[in-house]
Amino acid sequence: MTQSDSLNRPYEECGVFGVWGVPDASALTALGLHALQHRGQEAAGIVSFDGERFHQHKGLGLVGDVFGDSRVMATLPGTVAIGHNRYATTGGTHVRNVQPLYADYEFGGLAVAHNGNLTNSATLKQALVKRGCIFHSSTDTEVFIHLIAISLYTTVLDRFIDAVKQVKGAYSLITLTPDDGLIGMRDPLGVRPLVLGRMPGYEQGNGGWVLASETCALDIIGADYVRDIEPGEIVVINNDGLRSLRPFGDQGGRFCVFEYIYFARPDSVLEGQPVYEARRQIGCELARESAVEADVVVPVPDSGVPSAIGYAAESGIPFELGIIRNHYVGRTFIEPTDQIRNLGVKMKHSANRPVLAGKRVILVDDSIVRGTTSRKIVDMVRAAGATEVHMRITSPPTKHACFYGIDTPEESKLMAATHTLEEMAQAIGADSLAFVSFDGLYRALGHANRAEGARRYCDACFTGDYPIELVDKEGKLVA
């Protein structure tokens, strides 16, 4: 993926995974990370604990690239392990930023894997550096490492709670310690996901525990879903079993609504809501709200597929795979000249000409960020012979930047923030353009309207209603 590509649509935050009390914990963690690959493709890492020592391996690239060698897995023994897939939202793509981060303390080792973004990391980092803390990475996750180190509390768990009470932002964490075992947590508003599972055998009391960003990671290792970790909840998993703490009380929840639109895998279930069904229902709402005469409904793969199925079913217009995605495209391996960059979309998507030629086409996609990719896809469909191209988007217009762990450009570079709907349609070359309404989005998620649904979800990228204080932005300290 080129840098220019990464700014043309929102990209995932990160994926976290942890297991406790299972043989070959690192191998299961690698499988879990493989299922969470969609949440981050830049790097992967695993830290394991064998009862006496920590072991770690990290690298740039996909999970299969980093952990595909059995000799690497042999260096990660133990029945406890945590892992991380990285998509950089803060800090650059360097090995020093690859998680889990590990540190040796006076009480022993500690590793932490983090999904999300801290909105006061730059402010905290400035204060920590003044106290003499030395940072070895540019990721906001390292703030947790130093806050735990300087805490005056005695136990590791109390130090952990002391640290998380000082940070602001959207995050899910999995921490590995010698005595407390696994510690999992979601931020007080539960913006980022984290689910709890158990391995087979738990009915007899000998099954291991699993923490993961999504339920699809439980499925790949045969674990049973138990429940979602609640907003602000800390779970501690060790030889004494599972213990739950709620140091923040009940502050409600503002789960990221974009998980349903784009980020999560369609076979996951988050907050009790099947992602596939949510996307299909959004497509149905789009068909009701913005019907247009056409011959075929075509998804922009992959996130547009369930919604296009819903749109086709509701409208009665046939669903067709008019665009084929190349699933084997990784980073751009050719020098990105202007000519190659302009051909980049064809590396990822190609037109299915027999389906499109001579047809009025409805294209269903998840979002428009800068609009560059949408323009290329519309042009590709027209070049394949489509007589009309109508774009339908399964999210409201993205008008605001995300500060909670999603890679989006600043507002001045978001097309919906600087163009009217008509201007956007003209800019991407579509005959018509429509976004799902706020009420339509929340109806698809089982709520009467946005007024009801917005009390449960964060939709700041659409509305500018940021539920968590943007400390660094307001103080002009942006890491």
TrEMBL record:
GO terms for molecular function: amidophosphoribosyltransferase activity. It catalyses: 5-phospho-beta-D-ribosylamine + L-glutamate + diphosphate = 5-phospho-alpha-D-ribose 1-diphosphate + L-glutamine + H2O. This is Amidophosphoribosyltransferase. The gene is purF. Keywords: 4Fe-4S, Glutamine amidotransferase, Glycosyltransferase, Iron, Iron-sulfur, Magnesium, Metal-binding, Purine biosynthesis, Transferase. HAMAP family: PurF. Its cofactor is [4Fe-4S] cluster; Mg(2+). Catalyzes the formation of phosphoribosylamine from phosphoribosylpyrophosphate (PRPP) and glutamine.
